[in-house]
Design brief:
The chain is an alpha/beta fold. The chain has eight helices and eight strands; from the N terminus they run βαβαβαβαββαβαβαα. The protein has helices at 18-26, 50-56, 77-83, 98-107, 154-167, 181-189, 199-202, 207-215, and strands spanning 5-8, 32-38, 63-69, 87-91, 111-116, 134-138, 172-176, 194-197. The chain has an eight-stranded parallel beta sheet. Helix 2 (50-56) runs parallel beside helix 3. The radius of gyration is 16 Å and the shape is globular. It binds D-xylitol-5-phosphate (DX5) and zinc ion.
């Protein structure tokens, strides 16, 4: 089983001082940061785009864990790779060439991930499991930070974790939405190893303790 990784979501950081919000992650000795990209179509909200990713890239050595919430992600892969994303994750729900897009992400030198919404069954992603470095299981309906954790997603998380073992695959299993130390522990028990936290991280009274608690999940 992979060691736990915390991937703080910049969406919940101070957007007037994005550089400082990125440094706050790096200064804790963390290695990942989660970048939420929204297009106002796939989700009813906007966040930021490749120009912003490129602007924060020179000041950071963090692994840019990029989550594209886009109707047409295949059109923007190159833009995010060139902006400095280290990993690009795309949703399974829109209709486009998923396998081909994952292969293009890899060819651009990035790791690739597949994402599924709470209402999407595990069977939808099974064909692409051998192609990915990461599976991102949404534990809220994407679009906004600060929503309550969806416990009904837990059986699906377990199922994907079981499939990983049965198939002998090594992709990371990430959860995103309503994650704090307690819900991360619940997800860890079902096989998750990578934890996105926006609100709970940036609002934590003691971020170092929050990070240590996630990193030490058994
Ligand atoms: C949801 C985004 C999440 C979000 C998580 O649309 O994909 O990454 O920022 O936020 P919290 O941790 O506040 O639920
Ligand atoms: Zn996300």
């Amino acid at each position: 089983m992979h060691a736990p990784i915390l991937s703080p979501s910049l969406l919940a950081g101070d957007h007037a001082q994005l550089g400082a919000s990125v440094r706050a992650v790096e200064e804790l000795g963390l290695s990942w940061i989660h970048l939420d990209i929204m297009d106002g179509h796939f989700v009813p909200n906007f966040s930021f785009g490749p120009q912003t990713v490129a602007a924060i890239r020179p000041g950071s050595k963090l692994f840019f864990d990029t989550h594209l919430m886009l109707d047409e992600p295949h059109r923007y892969i190159e833009a995010f790779a060139h902006a400095g994303s280290n990993q690009i994750s795309i949703h399974i729900e829109p209709a486009y060439d998923h396998a081909g897009t994952l292969a293009r992400i890899r060819a651009l030198g990035c790791k690739c991930g597949i994402v599924l919404n709470p209402g999407t069954p595990a069977t939808a992603i099974e064909p692409v499991l051998p192609l990915v470095d990461l599976v991102l299981v949404m534990t809220v309906q994407p679009g906004f930070g600060g929503q309550p954790f969806r416990r009904d997603v837990m059986p699906k998380l377990r199922r994907i974790s079981d499939r990983r073992r049965e198939l002998g695959l090594t992709f990371r299993l990430e959860v995103d939405g309503g994650i704090d130390v307690a819900t991360a522990a619940e997800c860890r028990a079902e096989g998750a190893d990578t934890f996105v936290a926006g609100t709970s991280f940036y609002r934590a009274a003691d971020r170092a303790k929050f990070a240590a608690d996630i990193s030490s999940l058994a």
